[in-house]
Known about the structure:
The chain contains four helices and four strands; from the N terminus they run H-H-H-H-E-E-E-E.
Amino acid sequence: MLDLLQKLAVYREKYYNLMVGRYALWDRLNKDMLIFCVALNFINLFIGSWIVRTVAALLFLAPIFRLFSKNIDKREDENTNYCKKRKGVVEWFKIMYKRISEIKTHRYYKCKNCDSYIRVPYKKGEHTIDCPKCGKEFKVKIR
Length: 143
């Protein structure tokens, strides 16, 4: 047992020496690439395409490359840019889900002046709406 613990300590020391000066972070980009890789492999069980299998393999290698990369600043910039874009996509899906779930009670209109969305109760007819951001009035017709 003691011999096994000593071997584990040696391997741990070798691993630490290997990873010195490397990125070695499981950031959001790495996690999402691996999740997408698993999803592609699952889909490929039903499709059986060599193209999907190749894309999944390359997608599996990308996080490993990022883990062992010594260009830490570039990897952090990649993750930051990805997180910004991901946040926008997630917010868009949240807004679409909210709009669909409220389709019987409310409507959403885009202000022509400031491009913000305004939530209006669903009442048939022609209405005048004041934009809360820019204060501009515009008319909408709800059918």
